[in-house]
Amino acid sequence: MNIGEIIKNLWEGSGYYLFGADQGWKSIIMIIVAFFFLYLGIKKKFEPLLLVGIAFGMLLTNLPAGVSDALFHPDWWTGPDAVQNGVDYLNVLQHGGLLDILYIGVKTGVYPCLIFMGVGAMTDFGPMLSRPSSLILGAAAQMGIYLVFILASCMGGLYTGGEAASISIIAGADGPTAIFLTKQLAPQILAPIAVAAYSYMALIPLLQPPFMKLLTTKKERMTIMQSSRKVSKKEKIIFPILVTVVVCLLLPSVAPLLGSLMFGNLLKECGVTERLSDTAQNALMNIVTLFLGISVGATAVAATFLTTKTLVIVVLGLAGFVLATISGLLIGKILYVVSKGKINPLIGSAGVSAVPMAARVSNTVGLKSNNSNYLLMHAMGPNVAGVIGSAVAAGFLLAVFG
Amino acid sequence: MNSLILASVLNKDEPMQPLDALLLAVIGIAVVFVVLIALMFIIWLMGKIFDGSDKLKEKHPEWGEKLAKTKEKMMFWKKKENKEPAESFEVQEVAEGTCGDVKLINVSERDAAMIMAIVADSTGTPLNELRFVSIKKVEEEK
């Protein structure tokens, strides 16, 4: 028995040796990125419920072959064979690892819809119903999506139409919608899209305030909004049913997302399904968030993630968030003038649909200008309108490229 | 290259020409605004209808009272039909109690309280452990 040979075999079979192999450095960079996201999620509390899962999935999948192969096989999902002939689900079920099985929910679009159901069950559309003009601000912030779409299409053919559409939806600040659209139009860039979308959503408290202060005057920021009309229970029950019928008939491609959102909201508002509402907003939401985070993170494999395309996606995503914020603020300023100073333009930035973070940011900036200016409830209107707006924008892109 | 003029549904796997992308973006944002403004109009209309009905109730409070009384009578007769033949008793306000509600038929609250106290005393049961469903005055035959 040659002891030297045994030690050599052990060393060459270990993950540490494989890091030194061809392209191994890329895995090391991805693992460092995963550590950074774990730091942001745990220490800085940036969207920890998702970011911790995404970061851990990223860590697992970038461990060298032999370790990661037992968990996830990216080629089965986004490799040339899968793109050409579709995913072989029988093979996934028979030979797939844990993350392969969990990823089925992402690939089939089940997770984003279930998350939307939970979001619907947690959302109070009352502020929007009491001030219907909120919907204009919700629509305005979606301009960021289309501006990024134009930018991505002007990159000299770097991105296909489907990829440009998927990148643009990051500006909607709506993680489930971004995943739902990308898995259909450009599954090969799902990881950078999901990571960028959720990371920027987490960074909203840092990204938005400078532009809010830059584009509004102190007088505008100090505007105290009066409370609007009281919304009856009947209106809250009728609304989700009405939206489902009106919007889904116009854009059938958005029915899975919007239908789930409105179903969740109906469970909350109808008052006779408290147990179901509770499950949708707690147990179900937690389980799906767990599965979604770790399986999306697992798609961030070094070989496909560390490319120029990904870096440009990250930059375009950032531009999208900024443009969406600016669009909302500018329309907010128009409403300020039209309403003769009754609407605070700061609520315009809440039109990006990161609920309720964008509304909280509007409230915080409003309070800094005037310490008795509570904008939270007023900003919730554009905020929830933004959720509907981004779903409609995604539905349009799906209808065009579907 | 994709072209909006050539195809109604674009190929997602081909790059788009910038001008086509611009045209698509304009149509896209128009669609978002049209849908959300349509929703805004529907919400505004819904609000007007509900506010209008509330104002009508405020303007004519007697309509609301009449409706409430009719509903109460309907409930009473529905229960009656299931239990005993209908009689034209006067329906009085339900007495408040710590142990549920009791229906009083042609009996004053004072008399009902006395009856309940007597029953509790003669059976040796605390009043809050007794449950009275209804107390009805029986007319003597002349």
Please specify the SSE layout and strand pairing.
The complex is a heterodimer of chains A (402) and B (142).
Chain A lengths: L2 H11 L1 H5 L4 H19 L5 H14 L12 H5 L1 H6 L3 H7 L2 H10 L2 H13 L3 H5 L3 H7 L2 H11 L7 H8 L6 H11 L4 H13 L1 H12 L2 H4 L11 H18 L4 H15 L4 H8 L1 H16 L3 H4 L2 H31 L18 H13 L6 H26 L1
Chain B lengths: L17 H42 L1 H23 L19 E3 L3 H15 L10 E3 L6
Parallel strand pairs in B: 1-2
Helix pairs in contact in B: 1-2
Task: Characterise this structure.
The complex is a heterodimer of chains A (402) and B (142). Chain A has 402 residues and is mainly alpha-helical. Chain A has one domain. Helices cover 73% and strands 0% of the residues of chain A. The longest helix of chain A has 31 residues. Chain A starts with a helix and ends with a helix. The model of chain A has no long low-confidence stretch (mean pLDDT 90). Chain B has a domain of 53 residues. Chain B has a two-stranded parallel ribbon. Chain B is elongated, with a radius of gyration of 34 Å. In chain B, 14% of the residues are buried. Classes of the chains: A mainly alpha (402), B mainly alpha (142). At the A-B interface, helix 10, helix 11, helix 12, helix 13 and helix 18 of A face helix 1 of B.
